[in-house]
Design brief:
The complex is a heterodimer of chains A (278) and B (331). Chain A is mainly α and 278 residues long. Chain A has two domains: 56 residues; 172 residues, MetI-like (MetI-like fold, Orthogonal Bundle), CATH 1.10.3720.10. Chain A has 14 helices and no strands. The longest helix of chain A is centred in the first third of the chain and has 35 residues. Chain B is mostly helical. Chain B has a domain of 217 residues: Orthogonal Bundle (MetI-like fold). Chain B is 72% helix and 1% strand. Chain B contains 14 helices and two strands; from the N terminus they run αααββααααααααααα. In chain B, strands 1-2 form a two-stranded antiparallel sheet. The N terminus of chain B is likely disordered. Classes of the chains: A mainly alpha (278), B mainly alpha (331). Chains A and B meet through helix 1, helix 4, helix 5, helix 6 and helix 8 of A and helix 1, helix 3, helix 5, helix 6 and helix 7 of B.
Chain lengths: 278, 331
């Protein structure tokens, strides 16, 4: 009897601690909602308001007057969407080759790719900027899309996935049937690695959507930027005056990705954790 | 977001093992390469992009580190003078110290809280999915939006931190104007954003520990604390090392947190890192020298210095991993 009571007490304190963690995780989002629905004078008053107000529409109106919100959101969508499609294609194609074929230089090329992981982005940032300026890409979304179109992480991830998921018997059978390389990729490999592609796609889209440092440098025209850069501009100019508006911007910029994450979360978190402990 | 965080995961786990290789018939040199042209073509996009936007630029930036160049005019050979200047440049070394301080203040509590949370999550039977979701959400949200929100929390006049301090009778703190306050704010942001992520990674590691080990420890009469230190910790070592490596590499290159939090439109460079440059990390300093001062040559020298820092810390981590391998192998 006392044993079960002790277990119950332990359970309660455990969940209390875990729920406190949940509240800490969620609280900043809640605070953003509170501020996005308040006027500046309400925000600047003491004691601070801890429940939502009724001025969300007003703040959003100011936001749309001050920045081209939907224009920059469209830019973010174009960049993240295009990069995701390109990464899925190029990375899975290369991963298919590394997972299922042997050819001269295979180990060397794969090792080289893994080494590249470690290079910090700053190392190539200046010449990359100069090269792109010469190509006339600076200021356009091309500067963000092209260098991101294939990456080592995705190739590595998909290779791991394909090695286990595509059985050699399937490869042999398809070759006996006279399948060309591209047909094998399209009809044999891709159908069985869809879950792996789903993870890589969501992961790529999210990182591109949230990317900030390079877009800040490469998008030199302040009227033609991605959502993150627009939000940062808004913050640096108006955070002393119209906080409700800035918060409304932060909140609206978060929502598309949060919705996406809510639907993808279960498999996404499991896949990411699996990748890390392998 | 997590791309930097996850990427080295793969790097560490990388053990290229040829599996299920098909269609390889030995034949002589060039003919063999020509026979496989489709395969080379299929992997070429990554290598071409890397060549154009990674390797060639990295080489060019090494060349630039020995030149004076504003990006427009003629280059002027500078020899080692920029590296000599770097060694004596107090703002650079301050930035190194800032980076390390912020990294230590943000990462160490983060990993500790994450480990404790993971152990708790592992013993919770119910609501695991809900907890995992809530703990993970901060890591997928954009650092810009998070920095905007944290800017309000640490605001001197209306921030929640100061409201709490005022309520309990301690005076206000000008968080984003005081050198140490700035570091606390940046570190708090990082801790908030990445603790849950690391907890989930730790949780995945905990779940791979065979339950028989815990059974055996219980039979031997080990209490929960003893069990934690002689079963959980040794088994978790690779995962802990992974998170340390990842957070070190990303921590040394932190940029966005300070840039958004402190890049106010007050006439200073948005890469200045706040009053007295207290929040200026090395990458921020790199951006300031390069893109605000148009000192491309010196910027390149800084970039190579950052690279060396990353290499040194990676080597230290690698040594730690190796020692583990040696210890594990029976001699």
């Amino acid at each position: 009897m006392s044993r079960t009571k002790g277990a119950m007490a332990r359970g309660i304190s455990l969940h209390t601690a875990l729920i406190a963690g949940v509240l800490l995780s969620i609280f900043p989002f809640y605070l953003a909602v509170v501020m996005a629905t308040r006027t500046s004078s309400e925000i600047f008053s003491y004691p601070p308001k801890l429940w939502p107000g009724s001025h969300f529409g007003e703040n959003v109106g100011h936001l749309f007057d001050n920045i081209d919100f939907f224009g920059s959101m469209l830019n973010s969508l174009i960049v993240a969407g295009t990069v995701t499609v390109l990464v899925l294609f190029f990375d899975s194609l290369a991963a298919f080759v590394f997972a299922k074929f042997d050819f001269p230089g295979r180990k060397l090329l794969f090792g080289l790719m893994m080494g590249i992981f470690m290079l910090p982005a700053q190392l190539s940032a200046i010449p990359q900027f100069v090269i792109m300026a010469k190509l006339g890409w600076i200021g356009s979304l091309t500067a963000l899309i092209v260098p991101a179109a294939a990456n080592a992480f995705g190739i590595f991830w998909m290779r791991q996935y394909m090695t286990g998921a595509i059985h050699d018997e399937l490869m042999d059978a398809s070759r006996l049937d006279g399948c060309s390389f591209l047909r094998q990729y399209w009809h044999v490999a891709l159908p069985v690695v869809r879950p792996g592609l789903a993870f890589l796609g969501i992961f790529t889209f999210m990182s591109q959507w949230n990317d900030y440092a390079w877009p800040l440098i490469a998008l030199t025209n302040p009227d033609h930027v991605t959502l993150q850069v627009a939000l940062s501009q808004l913050n640096s100019v108006h955070s002393m005056t119209d906080y409700g508006m800035v918060m409304a911007g932060a909140l609206l910029a978060l929502i598309p990705l949060l919705i996406m994450f809510i639907f993808a979360a279960r498999h996404f978190i499991a896949d990411l954790a699996k990748g890390a402990i392998r | 977001m997590a791309d930097m965080k996850t990427a080295p995961a793969a790097a560490i786990a990388a053990a290229p093992s040829p599996t299920g290789t098909a269609g390889a018939a030995p034949s002589g040199g060039r003919g063999r390469i020509r026979r496989h042209w489709r395969l080379y073509a299929a992997i070429s996009p990554f290598y071409l992009l890397f060549l154009c936007f990674g390797l060639v630029p990295a080489g060019f930036s090494l060349f630039l580190a020995f030149q004076r160049w504003d990006g427009l005019g003629d280059m002027e050979y500078a020899g080692l003078s920029q590296f000599r200047y770097l060694l004596a440049d107090t703002q650079f070394w301050d930035a190194v110290v800032n980076t390390l301080e912020i990294w230590a203040m943000g990462t160490l509590p983060m990993l500790f809280i994450a480990l404790v949370s993971a152990v708790m999550l592992n013993s919770a039977v119910r609501f695991k999915g809900v907890y995992r979701f809530a703990y993970f959400v901060p890591s997928v949200t954009s650092v810009v939006a998070v920095a905007v929100i944290f800017g309000s929390i640490f605001s001197t006049s209306f921030g929640l931190m100061n409201a709490v301090l005022r309520t309990v009778g301690i005076g206000e703190v000008a968080w984003l104007n005081e050198p140490w306050g700035i570091k606390v704010a940046v570190a708090a942001l990082m801790t908030w954003q990445w603790t849950g992520y690391n907890a989930i990674i730790f949780l995945a590691g905990l779940q791979t520990i065979p339950t028989e080990l815990y059974e055996a420890a219980r039979v031997d009469g080990a209490g929960p604390v003893r069990t934690f230190f002689s079963v959980t910790m040794p088994m978790m070592r690779p995962v802990i090392l992974f998170t340390v490596v990842v957070s070190t590499i990303t921590g040394l290159q932190s940029f966005s947190e300070s840039q958004v939090l402190l890049g106010r439109n007050d006439g200073m460079s948005t890469f200045a890192g706040g009053p007295e440059h207290a929040g200026q990390t090395v990458v921020l300093y790199f951006f300031q020298q390069t893109f605000d001062n148009n000192d491309f040559g010196y910027g390149a020298a800084i970039a190579w210095a950052i690279f060396m820092m990353v290499v040194v810390f990676s080597l230290i981590n690698w040594r730690l991993v190796n020692r583990r391998e040696r210890a594990r192998r029976p001699s």
